[in-house]
Amino acid sequence: MAKAKRIFSLLLRLLALGATLSAAIVMVTSHEKAKFFAVSFEAKYSNTPAFKYFVIANVIGGVYSFLVLFLPPKSMLWRLVVALDVIFTMLLTSSISAALAIAYVGKKGNSQAGWLPICGQVPKYCNHVSVALAVGFIGVVIYMLLLLYSIHTALNPLLV
Amino acid sequence: MAKAKRIFSLLLRLLALGATLSAAIVMVTSHEKAKFFAVSFEAKYSNTPAFKYFVIANVIGGVYSFLVLFLPPKSMLWRLVVALDVIFTMLLTSSISAALAIAYVGKKGNSQAGWLPICGQVPKYCNHVSVALAVGFIGVVIYMLLLLYSIHTALNPLLV
User: Which parts pass through the membrane (chains A, B) (predicted)?
Assistant: First the structure.
């Protein structure tokens, strides 16, 4: 039973690793050149601080998931892992929310602030970013499940 | 000892209640009329979806903190509270990150996307929003401490 639980949790961590790293890679590779009237510009993730933060957070989350895979099952560090899961879930939640907020302005604009949507000019870039955000969202959901699962298994013996 | 822990945790929840509700109130009351060339406009939180989300998340977080204050110490529901703390901490983290991302564009603009900063036109509004975000940030930190503390107290008996 304990072994099945361990395999399930490792599987979730592998999925989390895949999702966070894919999100970072898709975001980094998103760029498109466009002409707006006479001005040619290149849309890329590094122009937007929120997208840079998204990439950094997902790389950190991926590296953390990778390291945890090699933690021996009996290690005392597993206690720390629950606390670290909280920190990294918050980091990923924060990064995807910031990126989504900016992507929303990119798609819809904000007429009161005079910010025009840019997705009409750079549709390929926008699609690329959307995919990165969708994959990043899956990563956050997996992290949340992992955290709730850790809390569940940690609290269960106390209540039986 | 158990009583001291309980008082400490209730105190944190009271602080969280205060911080989340203050953040929501400060954000809701932020507005400023300004003239930009010939166009007069009013900057208010409800023009920005991310700020609306911030207000809603903080009100939900505040109501949750309030309800938990009345939970009897021996209730079985405390087990659920740890899981709910995870959910609400993520909700607040997400809302403040989205609001901060938009506030950053409001302050600095994004020249590649052609989004101009608006804080020069509506400085009072910007200050008001900054205060709301700072108070909201304190709320998130208190929630994170609460969560790490709950996890610590829940896991401790297992490891002694």
Answer: 50-71, 83-106, 131-151
Chain-chain contact of A113 with B147 (C-beta, under 8 angstroms): no
Q: Are residues B89 and A90, on separate chains, in Cβ contact within 8 Å?
A: yes
Residue of A nearest to B107 (CA): A113
Tell me if B94 and A97 make a contact (CB, 8 A cut-off). Answer: yes
For B48, the 3-state DSSP assignment is coil
Beta-carbon contacts of residue A37 (< 8 Å; ≥ 6 apart): none
* Residue B150 CB contacts under 8 Å (≥ 6 apart), including other chains: B9, B81, B82, B85
Query: What is the β-pairing status of strands A31-36 and A39-44?
Result: antiparallel
pTM: 0.90
CB-nearest to B157 from A47, A94, A158 is A158
Largest Cα–Cα distance of chain B, in whole Å?
A: 70
Residue A13 placed within a domain: no
Q: Is residue A80 part of a domain?
A: yes
Domain of residue B143, residue span? 22-155
Contacts with A83 from chain B: Cβ below 8 Å:
148, 151-152
Q: What is the pLDDT of residues B10-46, one digit of tens each?
A: 899 999 999 999 999 999 998 888 776 667 778 888 8
Please state the rounded mean pLDDT for residues A101-106.
94
Chain B CB contacts of A116 below 8 Å: 114-115
In this prediction, residue A156 has a pLDDT band, given cuts at 50, 70 and 90, of: low
Q: What is the per-residue pLDDT for A6?
A: 80
Residue A67: what pLDDT?
93
- Do residue A101 and residue B98 have CB atoms under 8 angstroms apart? yes
Dihedral of alpha carbons A118, A119, A121, A125, sign? positive
Residue B46 lies in a domain: yes
For chain A, give the number of residues.
Answer: 160
Q: How many domains, in total, are found in chain A?
A: 1
Residue A34 in contact with partner chain B when CB distance is under 8 A? no
More confident of the two residues B48 and A80 = B48
pLDDT at A93 over 50: yes
